[in-house]
Every structure is written in C-alpha cells, then in structure tokens.
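Hi all, long-time lurker, first post. I run a small reading group and we've been trying to get comfortable going from sequence to structure in the token notation. Rather than ask abstract questions, I figured I'd post a concrete chain and ask someone more experienced to write out its structure so we can walk through it together at our next meeting. Sequence below, copied exactly:
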Amino acid sequence: MSVYRIPSEFLENPVNVAVIGAGGTGSAVIACLAQMCLALEALGAPGLEVTVIDDDRVSPANIGRQAFAPCDVGKFKASVLVNRVNQTFGLDWEAVNERLCEKFSRNSRIRLPRIFIGCVDTRKARKAIQKSWEQAGQNVFRGTVWWLDCGNTAHSGQVILGSRKEGRIELPSAAHLFPEMVDAELDAGDDTPSCSLPEALAKQDLFTNRAIADAAMNLLWKLFRYGETEIHGAFVNLQTMRTNPLPIDPVAWARMGYVVQEDEPETAMATPKKLPATA
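-- Answer (accepted) --
Happy to help. Here is the structure in token form:
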C-alpha cells in the first residue's frame, strides 16, 4: 500500500468545504464537521468554512430518522442545520437552498470548495458533484481538491475519497472506481420518496446513514489530525457488522477496473504539517 499525505495548504488556512445533501447522511456529517472544526481550532489549526447545499425541505417522514424536529417541517433542510450549528458553536457557516450547480466560478455565491462532501441519494446528483469537482480541480484552483463521496443502500454503504491536483488524479474517486454510481439513467429504477417514518424505515435501516457519516468523518479527521493515511475509503455493512477498508493500492484499484495512467502519480507526496499532540 502507498501513503497519501494531506496537502500542506489544507493546514495553513481555513478549508472551504461544500456539503451537498442535508438529509440522513448529510445532517450527521454536518454535526460531525462542527465538532471537527472546534477540535482543529483547539489544536491550533485554522478550522473549516462550510457551505451546505440542498434545495429540499423537511417533511414529516424525516422526523426520527434525520436530525430534524417536528417544528422544522416545511423549512429548508440546509438552513435548519446551518442555523443550528452557527447558534450552538458561534460559527459562520452558510446555507444554499438550491441544487448544486455543475459549474463554479470566482463570482459564484457559493464559497469555492476545496473539499466536496457528497451526501446525495441519486446518481444524477452525484454526477453533478463529479463535474463540479473536476471543474474546480482543472480551472479554478491551483492545488488539491477532494471529493468525499458517501453512499448507501438499506443496510450498507461506502465512503470514497477522490483527490485531484491541477487536473491530475491523485486518488481515484467513486466515479472512477464505480462508474455506475454516476449513471443517471439508472435512477429510473430507484424507489420514490417515503411519506412516513415507518415507510422510510422499510427502505433503509435506522442507523445506516449515521454509520456512513461516521466512517467518512473518521477518515477526514485522521487526515487532518495525523497528516497521512494508507486508506481512502471503506465499505460498511451493518447486517454483518463488517467494515472493509479501501487501500491506496493500484492493485486494489485495478480489481475494480481502474488502472493508474502513466502520467498520473500514485499518491500525493506533499509533506504534511502535523498538528501538535495532545497532552
């Protein structure tokens, strides 16, 4: 296995993060990011600047399975969650109550993200994230852009971190390893949204989203806290209670159908600035 090292610029200034999707997984991710931001600042790191993007509103079926209360019904999910963490922790995060635009520019009202965190439930939405990540990595930034994809079925899911640096692939993304994840034509066979909590639970177990969010945030935290990792994802199965890591290994990638091109680096070799150890 190879080692991926966090880009030094991620530890020099607050990192802009875009969370796309504020539902079951997204609401858990946002709460974890608030904890992570406070922890990083306590360790002397600049912290995180987060924008939450989602055009969906809270429905009665969301109560009990997502991080919403009955008083939130009818409100935009992104605004509810961002207002909550801002008021609780004194943050200045932003909510965008719209769908993700596939193109970012320096004039966009959305903060240009260095990290895209996808918490969506359609392939069409994941495709939009992929295009935005690619566009940001090629045309907007000089440096590294991450895409941390969180996806799940009823009882299992996966977390995959992709990395681009000025148009070059450092770590293959979910779209590279599993192209079907961004094939919008496959969305036609998916179930329609649930109208009640019991109906929602029949389609997806209660803690599936939280397990995927925890795996994603643990991966992100370890990169910021310790500066490096030998894995860039995980596959979680709540029925068998097993978690299988995704190693940073071209051989493992090749088994999934992705082959590293000759002009692509296998890993990022930037020297990290490690945070101070705790007492």
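A couple of things your group might point at:
Residues 99 and 225 are 32 Å apart (CA to CA).
Residues 24-42 form the longest helix (19 residues).
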